[in-house]
Amino acid sequence: MCGRFSVYVDETEIKNRFPNHNLDSFKGIKKTNFAPTMEMPVIIENQVVNMRWGLIPSWSKDKSFANRLINARGETLLEKPSFKNLVNTQRCIIVSNGFYEWDAQNRQPFFIQPVNGSLMNFCGLHTLWIDENRQPLNTFTIITTAANQTISDIHHRMPVILEQKNEHQWLNRTNNFAAVQKLIKPIADSQITITAIDKVV
């Protein structure tokens, strides 16, 4: 799963990766412990939208879904009412530089990041929810998959991490879900590094 991650954005790198997006909202973002219900800029096909982490389906009567839908299992997206109507046109990218995972046995936290220190961007889904006061709220969830070998020693799930060459394919709404479903897989072990960190995190 993914329950905490870091959003420490290198502005030059993100501009190089998404040159056609207005990235002003990413300026100065330095959140090393981003948690559910917090808000951040999220990248969709043609723009950047501020969203809250924890998906609230458009048909939900209240916000109670948010805490339950911070992650979405990639293997069952087409089976779940909360996700199946989003996979063709409501895909997004959540910008990150790494995520945290805890060893369940001793609660030792680890930080997982790219070996080259670059951005680590997650596959996501997003939707718009209207509250009881008719106020709009954009929310997102992070898609997960089975852990690769590096992470499997501490957890059986991990977020779907996009290789840079596949980011625009994922965002392009002319690609239906069948065309991008193959991207939902564990990233290669050689592309990430895992480091034990202080339990104070």
What's the CATH architecture name?
Alpha-Beta Complex
| Biggest β-sheet strands, sense, barrel | 8 strands, mixed
The radius of gyration over CA amounts to 16 Å
Number of strands: 13
What's the shape? globular
Q: Percent of residues in beta strands?
A: 25-35%
Spell the H/E element sequence: EHEEEEEEEEEHEEHHE
Structure, described:
It is a single chain. With 201 residues, the chain is mainly beta. It has one domain (5-196): SOS response associated peptidase-like (hypothetical protein yedk fold, Alpha-Beta Complex), CATH 3.90.1680.10. It contains four helices and 13 strands. The model has no long low-confidence stretch (mean pLDDT 93).
Topology:
Blueprint: E1 5-8, H1 11-17, E2 30-34, E3 39-43, E4 48-53, E5 71-73, E6 91-94, E7 98-102, E8 109-114, E9 121-130, E10 136-146, H2 149-152, E11 157-159, E12 161-162, H3 167-171, H4 177-180, E13 192-196
Parallel strand pairs: 4-10, 5-10
Antiparallel strand pairs: 1-2, 1-7, 3-4, 6-9, 7-8, 8-13, 9-10, 9-12, 10-11
Considering the chains and any ligands shown, give keywords for the structure.
201 residues, mainly beta, hypothetical protein yedk fold, eight-stranded mixed sheet, five-stranded antiparallel sheet, 4 helices, 13 strands
What's a concise summary of this model?
The protein contains 4 helices and 13 strands. With 201 residues, the chain is mainly beta. It has one domain: hypothetical protein yedk fold (Alpha-Beta Complex), CATH 3.90.1680.10.
